[in-house]
Amino acid sequence: MKPAKPQTDRWQRPLRFLAGGGFATLVHWLTMLMLIQSGTDARVATATGATAGLVINYLAQYHYTFQSRLPHRRAFSRYLASAGLGWSLNLAGFSAIYAVTGAVLVSQAIATATATAANYLLAEKFVFQGESTDDIH
Fold first, then answer.
1. Is 53 in contact with 28 (CB distance < 8 Å)?
2. Of 34, 57, 35, 53, nearest to 44 (Cα)?
């Protein structure tokens, strides 16, 4: 029988998930700000920053949080699908809450928390889990 894991292990993966996402957000914002300061259109700058953050977040979650062994072609395609769902959930949640409250910060805070929780569950149960082979029977 395996000994029980300490209670702190229970929170290790979610905390790593948040740390990876936080670092990816920092990369997004720094990239965006540097590009804007160099004269790049703000829309192009934020799109470029978001793309850099997306790649950094994928690598952090793949290697650091979930220590996945899936081939990148499988894990990254799953990651992109879950990122699209998270984006949609964030937009829908924000829109619904904002329509009722008219409060931007509250709406975004709740939408972000909801999307983050959903993204974590998707990553844990789907994106980075499964067989490491591409055999289809």
1. yes
2. 35
- Could you give the angle at which helices 72-101 and 42-59 cross, rounded to 10 degrees? 130
Tokens standing for residue 57: 């977040």
Q: Judge contact between 17 and 61, C-beta under 8 A.
A: yes
Q: Tell which residue, 50, 64, 55, 52, has the closest CA to residue 17.
A: 64
Q: 135 by DSSP, 3-state: which? A: coil
CA dihedral 90→92→94→95, nearest 10 degrees, is 160
pTM of the model: 0.83
User: pLDDT tens digits, the chain, 137 residues: what are they?
Assistant: 555 555 557 799 999 999 999 999 999 999 999 999 999 999 999 999 999 999 999 999 999 999 999 999 999 999 999 999 999 999 999 999 999 999 999 999 999 999 999 999 999 999 999 764 454 43
Tokens (6 digits) for 32? 């965006």
Number of Cβ atoms within 10 Å of the Cβ of 93: 19
Specify the 3-state DSSP secondary structure of 94: helix
